[in-house]
Structure formats: structure tokens, C-alpha cells
Amino acid sequence: MIDPIQTSFRVASSGLYAQSMRMRVVSENIANAYTSAADAASDPYRRKTVTFGDELSRSEGVRYVGVRQIGVDMSPFRLTHDPGNPAANGKGEVKMPNVDPVLELADLREANHGYQANLQVIRQARDLFSLTLDLLKA
Amino acid sequence: MAPLLVGFGAQSVTRAVSSLFEAAESGQAPSGGTSNFRDMLADLATSASQSVQAAEKVSASALHGKASAREVAETLIQAEQSLQTALAVRDKLVAALQEISRMPI
Fold first, then answer.
1. Range B39-69 burial, b when 16+ CB lie within 10 A, else e
2. What is the Rg, in whole angstroms, of the alpha carbon atoms belonging to chain A?
3. Tens of each residue's pLDDT in chain A, 138 residues
4. Where are the beta strands (DSSP E) in A1-138?
5. Closest to B24 (Cα-Cα) out of B37, B9, B39, B12
């Protein structure tokens, strides 16, 4: 039999991993929010997305969370007028990444909250464990 | 996720607690399941040292930038729990032994 406290500890740890991966993807998007292409023919940075999936552990009978896929957002690029840019086309328009910094910051905030929630689970599981252990003392 | 050494955790704590209580009540060593109390203690000590070793290994690889802070925290907490369990059970056992040695004949 697997100890439920230890299991919740590990499940929360997988949550930490998933949320930190999300944070990583968001940071890539924010860092590349203004990365244009090298020339007019190629595309600029395309926004990355992350999707989570549950991973069943048969031996423990629990579902961990994992990163199912890191995909790309296929929405159209923004066009800005910048004739001096080497990536500008004939009309002086430059394709900019389809990243909306406001959206990314909202996502970052959500990842932050998810991470903290999982940290809280670990903290509680740890406290309960040592409280159980305290039965042996005194 | 990195496959981490599975510490024995609160399950064995509760088992240890109940066997100690049983021993106190019946006045004899409990014979729970297939292993006896001594084997359980040996188990406890072995897995405690194993999880401490695993934690050391992960900490070392974190210093080389190969493990994340999350992994270090996870294995260290697991090692800490194993060690605390082993220490608590040992303390209880030594206390019981002293109790017996103080018994007037």
C-alpha cells in the first residue's frame, strides 16, 4: 500500500514541474514578443502554447500532471509599418510575432498561482507527516 | 519526472506506532505480518540512509546545474522524513530498553 501523504507530496511535485514549464513557455513568448523575421519571406517568432495532460501511475493508482505538448499558436501575425526594417515587405510592413504581452502576463500570473497552490500542498503534507511522527515522541 | 527513491513514509510510521503500542499493551514483541520488529527497524535504517544518499546525489547534480530546485527539495524532504522516522523509532526503542533496565528485580 502506498502512503497517501507521500503520494500527494509527489503529485504536488509533478504540479510544480508542470507550472514551471508553463512559466518557461510564457517567458519565451514575452522575451520574443518583438522578434521579427530576418527577411520579408520568412515568419517571425510564433507564439508557443503549453497543454497539460494527466499521467496515470498504475502502481500507485494516482494521476500525475505532466506537459502533454508544447505547441504553437497559429493565429495571424501582427503587421507594423516599419520601412527601415530589413524584414519589411514591399509596402513597408513588417510581420511581428502573434504574442500579446497582456495575455502572457495573465498566463504568468495563473502559473504563479498554480505553483503556489502546489507548494502549499507540499507544505501541508509535510506538516501532517511530522505531526504523525510526533505521536512517537513524548 | 525523475524516478526518486520512494521513502517509506507515514505508512511505516503508523505501523511502527501501532506495533509499539501493541508491544506496550501485550507486554511482548508484536509479530505483525511476515517481518518482525527487528527486521522492520533494519528496514527503516536502510531506507533512511538510502534516501539521504539519494538526496546527496541530487544536491550534487544540482550544484552542477543538472537538477532543478524542485527535485532537490523533493528528495531532501523525503530524506528528512525518512531520517526523522528512523530517529523517532530509535528514541522510542531506547526509551523502552531503559525502562526495562530500570525494572527492580
1. ebbeebeebbebbbebbeebeeebeeeebbe
2. 22
3. 578 888 899 999 999 999 999 999 999 999 999 988 888 888 899 999 999 999 988 888 889 999 999 999 999 998 999 888 888 888 888 999 999 999 999 999 999 999 999 999 999 999 999 999 898 886
4. 48-57, 62-72, 78-81, 93-96
5. B37
Q: Is A16 on the interface with B (CB under 8 A)?
A: yes
Establish if B69 touches chain A: CB-CB under 8 angstroms: no
Interface test with B, best of A132, A134, A137 (most B CBs within 10 A): A132
Cβ pair B92:A136 closer than 8 A: yes
Give the bridge partners for A94, in sequence order.
Answer: A80
| ipTM exceeding cut-off 0.90 for this assembly | no
Query: What are the boundaries of each domain within chain B?
Result: 35-101
